[in-house]
Design a protein that fits this description.
This protein is mostly helical and 173 residues long. Helix content is 61%, strand content 0%. It has 8 helices and no strands. Helix 1 packs parallel to helix 6. The two termini are 33 Å apart.
Length: 173
Amino acid sequence: YHKRNTSLGALEWRHKILTAQKGLSSLKTENHIEVRYEDLAATPHDTLEKICDFLGVSFEDSMLTYWETSSKFIGEHHSKLIFRPVSTKSVGKWQTALPAKEIQKFEFIAGKQLESLGYNLKYSSHNQYIQFQVALELFSGMPRRLWSVLFTHTRQILASKFGFTEDTAKLSK
């Protein structure tokens, strides 16, 4: 859940998908490529070759073993999954790991985008109870999330203006 607020997480996911789709719609089809996680997980070699062909770079087998050297380039604060091979274990996980009520809330908010990307919805209708819960979650979660986004944005502006980085801030303490 998005910090235990599925509705807010669904709204942000929907916004990001719509923003990406809007941006991609302004490009010629030969100028972008869309890659589904499910395809990468199921056929990593073929999918990476397709990406390399699009970018005009040579495919290398070491691309399939990125996880063996991830710790040299990526901080430990990231998901542990970055340090493991791509796996199909997570494909569709949200539809089995989340409780039915949470899936219904997510689908209520982002169902059209899920379907446009080829995902099958688990629930075709949503009752008023789910709609009420979505409204409550958004009402309670939006102010907190807004402050978080504004704080991060302000911090980034100040950091770029004065040359601060996360490392600089830690050293000054």
